[in-house]
């Protein structure tokens, strides 16, 4: 979704596409936030999630990107878009101690070795 947004809004040369610095930094931020989500692999979609882990400015940027790219995903990547819409309808799991972020799982594995 970030690539679709960046390509349309920040790129002049469409043949040699590379994300702009702003979109690349946002992508790194998003991956870090997802990696540290306490829901781990059972994470609900951000719109449904009771934990708001993005900073306000980043949340606005995420909403802007999703509003632009969401409808275009149905054409570019229809299976991914439909999976996302189905995932959006699932109920939110109750957070418990068995759920842990991917970051904490990796850290625990490294400490055990």
Keywords, separated by commas or semicolons:
mainly alpha, 113 residues, 0% strand, Uncharacterised_YgbA, Nitrous oxide-stimulated promoter
Describe the protein in words:
The protein is mainly alpha-helical. It has one domain. Helix content is 59%, strand content 0%. The protein is built from five helices and no strands. It has helices spanning 2-9, 21-35, 56-76, 78-89, 102-112. Helix 3 (56-76) crosses helix 4. The model has no long low-confidence stretch (mean pLDDT 84).
Give the topology:
Blueprint: H1 2-9, H2 21-35, H3 56-76, H4 78-89, H5 102-112
Helix pairs in contact: 3-4
Number of helices: 5
Number of domains: 1
Q: Report the major sheet.
A: none
Rg for CA atoms: 16 Å
> What's the β-strand tally?
0
Portion in helices:
55-70%
Structural class: mainly alpha
Overall mean pLDDT stands at 84
Distance between the termini: 37 Å
**Low-pLDDT runs:** none
Quick rundown:
Pfam families: YgbA_NO (PF11756). This protein is mainly α and 113 residues long.
């Amino acid at each position: 979704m970030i690539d679709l947004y960046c390509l349309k809004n920040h790129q002049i040369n469409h043949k040699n596409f590379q994300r702009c610095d702003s979109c690349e930094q946002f992508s790194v931020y998003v991956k870090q936030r997802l990696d540290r989500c306490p829901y781990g692999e059972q994470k609900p979609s951000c719109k449904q999630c009771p934990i708001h882990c993005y900073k306000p400015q980043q949340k606005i940027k995420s909403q802007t990107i999703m509003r632009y790219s969401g409808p275009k995903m149905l054409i570019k990547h229809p299976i991914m878009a439909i999976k996302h819409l189905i995932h959006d309808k699932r109920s939110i799991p109750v957070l418990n101690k068995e759920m842990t972020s991917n970051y904490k799982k990796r850290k625990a594995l490294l400490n055990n070795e």
